[in-house]
Amino acid sequence: MAVSRQVDLLEPINLAEHLGKVELYLGQVCQIAGISKMQLDYWTNKAQIPTKGKKQRIYDIDALETVMLIKQAKDKGLNLGAAIEAARNFREQRL
Predict the structure, then answer these.
(1) Where residue 55 sits, what CATH number does that domain have?
(2) At residue 59, what are phi and psi to the nearest 5 degrees?
(3) CB atoms within 10 A of CB 74
(4) What is the CA angle 42-21-68, rounded to 5?
(5) Could you list the residue range(s) of the whole structural domain that residue 43 is in?
(6) Taking CA atoms, which of 12, 50, 68, 77 is between 20 and 30 Å from 33?
(7) What domain count does the chain have?
(8) pLDDT average, residue stretch 28-55
């Protein structure tokens, strides 16, 4: 089969449709969000961010978004409690 015919068989993939399946480990979330592992552990407990996994925490895309919203709020000067509340409110408004 010629290469051009093979390419014609393919269609664009909408990656957004598949993000719900993505699972990230603690180190990956820290790298993406730009925070330390100690911060992520503390925020996860304080904000009650749901995780999977028994030996190692596994974060889904929603959890990553929450962490990144908390980071954004902290960077804008909010204390952790206010940052968590702001992240919750922001996510609730979009639902």
Answers:
(1) 1.10.1660.10
(2) -110, 140
(3) 19
(4) 35
(5) 7-94
(6) 12
(7) 1
(8) 96
